[in-house]
Amino acid sequence: MSKTDYMYIRTILLDYYNVLARKDVRLTSIFMAGKGKYDQPKVLKDVNKAINAYKVNGDTYVIYCFDTDKYDSSPEDAKIIRTEEQFCKDKGYDFVWFCHDVEEVFLGHSVENSEKTDAAKKYFANSKNRKVKADNLKAKVYGKGKSNLISVLDKYFGGKEKADIGCCKEE
Questions:
Q1: Which has fewest Cβ within 10 Å: 15, 68, 111, 158?
Q2: 170 part of a folded domain
Q3: How many domains does the chain have?
Q4: Of 95, 110, 103, 101, which Cα lies nearest the Cα of 148?
Q5: Can you point out the beta strands (E) in the chain?
Q6: Is 169 part of any domain?
Q7: pTM of the prediction?
Q8: pLDDT for 93-129, tens place per residue?
Q9: CA distance 101 to 69
């Protein structure tokens, strides 16, 4: 997950769950610094450090977030996403996916790498006009522009009815 990806995810945490205002919830974002580095020693060390810091206060959960890239047209990408999913399952971590990437889910289109920071900042800053179809964030199967983000987060924070989702509007 990159820092720009987290800006989109943070909108859900703020607008949908109001998690950042809750004193009983602490979050740590750990950035992988590149595709395929989810199981690298530095990332795993950072994850374990966060788990150890939080476990004294109660339950601790790990949620890994991945872009699926071109899983539907590239056998190599499909194999990678299955490997990432298995890694999470083996570790007892939750697995969140974005098809094909975070921008595809939140903006409805891909964004060039050189434009990702500006697009994420604009989306995050424009809280009154965020539009994401709720169903696109509650998907059960991979599909372009879909994610299982809310399905996973609901396990921990409880869900709201679609009509109450401030950030996710039906188009």
A1: 158
A2: no
A3: 1
A4: 95
A5: 63-67, 94-98
A6: no
A7: 0.87
A8: 999 999 989 999 999 899 998 999 999 999 888 876 6
A9: 6
